[in-house]
Amino acid sequence: MLYIIALVACVGVARAEEVTLDKGGFKLTYDCTNRTALRYEYSLTTDTGSAARPSSFYTDPDLPSGCLQQTSTASYASVKTGYDRGHLVTSNHMDATSTYIKRANYMTNIVPQISTFNQGIWVQAENVAECYRDVAPLTVYGGLVYSDTSNDYFLSSHGIRTPEYFWKTIITTDPSTGAKKAISWYIPNREGLSTLNSYIVSIAELETILGASRVGITATAAVKAQKPTTTWTLPSGCDLS
Q1: pLDDT by residue for the chain (241 residues), tens digit each?
Q2: Strands 200-201, 180-188: parallel, antiparallel or unpaired by DSSP?
Q3: Which of 82, 123, 128, 223 is 20 to 30 A (C-alpha) from 185?
């Protein structure tokens, strides 16, 4: 397991130690002090996987010494109704092997998500990658933002705060032109959300909001400026099973 360690100063939180956790199928930028992933990335090609999703969640056995993680694998709903154990890296995207899909259920890849967010708009964004992976290889980037302490219901039970925003970017190739194309979303973790289209941003806008180093996407200025007016239509015949 690969670890890259750096110390960073975060506004409003303790000085944090970040590590890069290479899980084989995906990478997490993980904050050992605040027990949370902050960023993730992974690549997808044509879906040929069929490994079953585990029914359980697990503590991560591979953290470096001194790196803290959530203190419980129990459901967040057992503490506060209306919250799910939300995946950052989509479990279904890691079904190439039983090892990778189990790692997606490590608590280092799990954070509190409003249930309607997790089961609604977040699934819709995940499905864009699930469908377009069969059109051309793609890379998924994403992360989350902590900015408010008023909804931190799980500090005592799990040792983790509740994120206020999630972001996701997909970069792929248009097979008809060979050109790179990108789409990004910046979505609040709350109930009563609008359509996925309402939260489209460009990579450049994400860099303004979060900082280029946190977004961590290498692309041309033209790709970073792309901001589709609507979410990509799912390709005909897409199988979301």
Answers
A1: 444 444 443 434 445 799 999 999 999 999 999 999 999 999 999 999 999 999 999 999 999 999 999 999 999 999 999 999 999 999 999 999 999 999 999 999 999 999 999 999 999 999 999 999 999 999 999 999 999 999 999 999 999 999 999 999 999 999 999 999 999 999 999 999 999 999 999 999 999 999 999 999 999 999 999 999 999 999 988 877 6
A2: antiparallel
A3: 82
